[in-house]
Amino acid sequence: MELKIVKFFNRLGRGTAIDGVTDFVSRIMYLAIFWTLFTILIFFFAENGKNIATALVIAAGLHFLISEGVFKYLLLKYFEKTRPYIAYSQEIFPIGREHNDSSFPSSHVSANVAALTVLVNFYPIAWPGIILFGLLITFARLHNGMHYPSDVLAGAVLGVAYGIIGIMYAQSLVSFIF
Question: What three-state secondary structure class fits 15?
Fold first, then answer.
């Protein structure tokens, strides 16, 4: 079933501007620059900026520690999963950078959903745009042939957990540091 879903999303709009958009929003360097600048701006200019930026940093730290460290290195033998474009190279066309590490969990989705969870908490009125951005990243990872639905779902669940933990501990950390 997962393969059918990936094939459907991979073929959807192939060869159109959708490929360019999904490639762009999946570029790690652009995402890193965006979230770093966003966090700095929030820190200095937003009401309650120190708490929001701290929650974002905690969530990002948890993402790198758990999604990248624990799942992709320490527990790799239990969670290693070949990316769809590699496992089904005759059926799925890779778009963008061809990652060859384990596809589980989706780091792109995990990191972005973590940040988006923090933002929904502090800016609940912005939830439609925040949800759309999360869906765009999720769509991109499936469309680009990099992940299965279970990879992006696991990334989303982990991202929500990282965001909630970031929110829970941000205030006390800000009080301690500042």
Answer: coil
Identify which of 35, 110, 36 has the alpha carbon closest to the alpha carbon of residue 72: 110
pLDDT digits (tens, 9 = 90+) for 97-120: 998 888 899 999 999 999 999 999
Which one-letter amino acid corresponds to residue 96?
Answer: G
pLDDT tens digits along 37-46: 999 999 999 9
Q: Is 174 exposed, middle or buried (0-12, 13-18, 19+ CB in 10 A)?
A: middle
Chain centroid, CA 133 distance in Å: 10
Query: Residue 84 in contact with residue 3, Cβ under 8 Å?
Result: yes
Segments making up each domain of the chain, as ranges: 2-10+19-177
Residue pair 19/135 in contact (Cβ under 8 Å)? The answer is: no
Q: How far apart are CA 29 and CA 92, in angstroms?
A: 24
